[in-house]
Amino acid sequence: MKTGTTNDKRDNWTVGYTKGVTVGVWVGNNDNSKMNPKIASGATGASPIWYEIMRNLLTRYQDGLMDKPDNVEALTIDAYLGGLPKGGYPNRSEYFIKGSEPKDVASYYKKLKISKSNGKLANEFEIKSGNFEEKDFIVFQENDLLSNDGKNRWQEAVDSWAAEQKDDKYHAPKETSDASNESVMVSIKNPSDHQKLDDNNVNIKAKITSMEKIKNVKIYVNNNEIKSWNEDKKDVDETINLSDGTYEIVVKAWNEKDKNGESSIKIGVKKEWDYQVLTTTPTETPVPIP
């Protein structure tokens, strides 16, 4: 048995079946006005009627579950989007007519190549140079088959819903990166962003990509320049000593066309990367009057 109620309590229903009979009951006002609160849910409105009808019918019809037809099979599917099971998402069992069952994970799951420079969709240059990372997103795309004015109202509604979601997986970038083959791409490989390090000797590794020769590379720690090279340097491997604390590390490079690029990370040395020193507000101490 399954019940249902409209959001504004204008009608409700109950439907259920046995091996021998199926019954559906709808309850509502003919003028579409809101229902009496006492019978406004499927459990209190349609269900009692459904129960009495079903109890009477079962004196004449067979009870029990239906026999599964030979051309129907049970399959474990992704409970969220309905395709084959997807790692990290719950599953459920569903019945399918043979030949209609899903053959792959739902197409809404997308693994996109994202520019490390600006968070947009990586362009061809960035993909060839390896200056991208793959991220998982859920992208809903729907067609409005009833539209006669060119507007896709289904997609507009989906996009409006997705915009309200807090989970980043619903916010796939739509713009493609404008980085050109004259650009400089910098990617810090070590340490990882937001990493907590247990050693004061911090090894910084970065990869620099440019179609032009590199003329200058610099490392900054908390806005202070601590290392510089005036050469065509495409790989950085430098170890520096940092005291306990939190740091922002930036690697910046320039090519011979005066284009530049940079990459930054935040880390903690023997502290969490976002550690903050607690400060207390000074209070006045009464001075005794002699």
TrEMBL record:
Ranges where the record places region Disordered: 164-183
Keyword Repressor: no
GO cellular component: outer membrane-bounded periplasmic space
Domain of life: Bacteria
Alphabetic keyword roster: Glycosyltransferase, Transferase
Single Gene Ontology MF annotation: peptidoglycan glycosyltransferase activity
Pfam family for this entry, one: Big_7
Signal peptide: none
Keyword Signal attached: no
Composition bias, Basic and acidic residues: 164-177
Protein name per UniProt: Penicillin-binding protein transpeptidase domain-containing protein
The organism's taxonomic lineage, starting at the top: Bacteria, Candidatus Roizmaniibacteriota
